[in-house]
Amino acid sequence: MVAGPIDGTVAILSDLKAAGVPCYALTNMERETYPLRLERFEFMRWFDGAIVSGFEGVAKPDPAIFELLLDRFDLEPSDTVLVDDSPVNVRAARSVGMHAIEFETPGRLRESLRDAGLLDRKP
């Protein structure tokens, strides 16, 4: 995020939103950094809600932050998909019953989201 969004990922977020998929941010940003990035990057305002570790006092991979996300937004773990580039965060999300996708590339993420039924399949 320091350098900006990863090419292709904002388009995926846009497609998820267009498909009616609720999207939430779960970030380990600092209290001071999050508002600046929220102002700088329009796509960060597309989320239906956010859990920011700097405000919550707990950070990924602590399972408590995943539980906080689920509780605050009344999400069912088995219906919730986390996308994260850290294998330890992916494991932690799975430990609380969430589905989790380890981000590698936008293309692989798009395919994983299609496989999960969250994006329309394209020929």
What is the level-2 CATH architecture name? 3-Layer(aba) Sandwich
Elements, N to C (H/E): HEHEHHEHEH
- Share of residues in strands: 5-15%
Number of domain modules = 1
The end-to-end span amounts to 32 Å
The average pLDDT value, as a whole number, equals 94
CATH homologous superfamily title:
HAD superfamily/HAD-like
Biggest sheet: strand arrangement = 1-2
CATH topology: Rossmann fold
**Given the C-alpha coordinates, what overall shape results?**
globular
Biggest sheet details: 2 strands, parallel
Question: If you compute it from the alpha carbons, what radius of gyration comes out, rounded to the nearest whole angstrom?
Answer: 14 Å
Query: Could you list the spans in which at least 5 consecutive residues all have pLDDT below 50?
Result: none
Count all strands and give the number. Answer: 4
**What is the CATH class name?**
Alpha Beta
Helical percentage: 40-55%
Summed up, the helix count is 6
Task: Determine the structural class based on helices, strands and strand pairing.
Answer: alpha/beta
